[in-house]
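Hey Z.,

So I finally got round to the adenosine monophosphate thing we talked about over coffee. Here's the setup:
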Amino acid sequence: MTFEDLKLISPILKALKDVDYTTPTAIQASAIPLVLNREDVIGSAQTGTGKTAAFAIPIIQHLVNETQNSGGKRKVQVLVVTPTRELAIQIAESFTDYGKYTNLRNTVIFGGVSQGKQTNALRGGVDILVATPGRLLDLMNQGYISLQHIKYFVLDEADRMLDMGFIHDIKKIIAKLPKERQSLFFSATMPKSIVALSQQILRNPKKVAVSPVSSTAETIQQYLYTTNKSSKHDLLLHILQDAEMEQVLLFSRTKHGADKIVKNLHKRRIEAAAIHGNKSQNQRQKALKDFKDGKKRVLVATDIAARGIDIDKLRHVINYDIPNEPETYVHRIGRCGRAGEEGISISICEPEEIAYISDIEKLTRQKIELVEDHPFPQTDRPMNASEKKEVEKEKQRKKQEFFANRNKKKGSQNPGFRRHKR
Ligand code: AMP
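And the result:
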C-alpha cells in the first residue's frame, strides 16, 4: 500500500515525500481511512508505531478541504492533548511537517516555561493546538483559549495521562468541548479505567490496534552483558569503544544515577547529557537538541523523561540497569529501530538483576543474546535472603547515622533555633 492509495490530497503527499515516508505503517493504513470517513477511533498503539501521522494527516486533510479563507482571525479547530512536553513538541512538529504545503497554523503549549510566547502565538490565531493538560486549563481559565470551535479532538497516550494523575484535568477539558466533533483516542494499554474514559469521549468508535506492549520490534537486536555491580561503568566504557555507536540513548533508573553516569563519561571525554525530572524544561530541550544534532554522543535518561521521545534513526539503546517491570524494558528498547530501521539494544546486568531478565523474556517471548566475550565478566552471585536483610539493615543504620549527625550539626550551628522550636 502507498500513501496515494489512501486518497490523500497532493499537498500532503508532497510533504510526506519530503520526510521520506513511502509506505504507511500498520496504524496509518488502518486509521487514516477511518478518520477521513469521519469515524471516532480508539487506537491501541504506542509511540514508535507512526500513530502521530495516523491522526495528524487525515485531520490536516479535513481542515484543508473545509477551511475557507474568510480573512478573519483563525479559530482553534483541532485540539490534541498529550501528557508530556516532549510529546507535545514532537506532535506539533509533525503537524508542521505534514502540513508544510498548506497554510494551516499550529502551536504548542506546555507548562514549566513562562507563558508569554505561548499566549502571543495564540493571539495571532492558530488552527491546530497541541497541549499538555495543566497549561491548557490554565490558559483557558485566563481566557486565552476557547474550545468552542473545536471540530477534532485527539487524546494521546491516555494510559500515561491517567498514570500521571491528569484524570480530573481531562474531564474538565472534555466538558468544555462542543458535542458535535470527531474524537480520536490513543493509548498503549487498555485497562478498564481507560475503556471507561474512552466511553465518555467517543461515539460508536472504530477500533484499531497495533503492537501491544509485549511485542518488541523485530528489527531490534538485543544483547545482554552480565557483570558485577562495581564493574558496570568500566564495561560501559568498553562497550562505547565501538566507534559505530555514534548516538546512544542510555537509560538509568534514577536521576542521581543519570547525573553520575554523565559525570563519569565526561571524565573520559565522552560527550554526554542527562534528561530527567530535576532538569529544567530548557535544559531538557537543549540536551535533546544537542543529541539529535550529534553534539552529544550519549543521552542519559530516566524512564519518565525518555518516554515518547522520538529520535529519528536512533540505532543504539543501552540499559545501564535492568528494569524490574518488563514493560519498561519494552518501552526503552522501542526507542530504537523505529519505523523499520535497524536497532541494537545492550543491557548491562548485575547479579541482583538477573531475575528480571527472565520476566522480560517471558513477556517478549524472545531470548536476549548473551555476550560472554568481554573483559568484565560477572563473578559475584546474587545475594540470598539473609544477605539482603543484612544489607538493608546496614543501609538503615547509615541513614539514621546521617540524620543524627545532620541534626547534631544543625543544633550546634543554631542553638537559638532549637530553643525556639521547644
Ligand atoms: P510516532 O509513533 O508517531 O512517534 O512515529 C515514530 C517515528 O516513525 C517518527 O520518527 C516518524 O517520523 C516515523 N514515521 C511515521 N510514519 C512513517 C512512515 N510511514 N514511514 C517512515 N517513517 C515513519
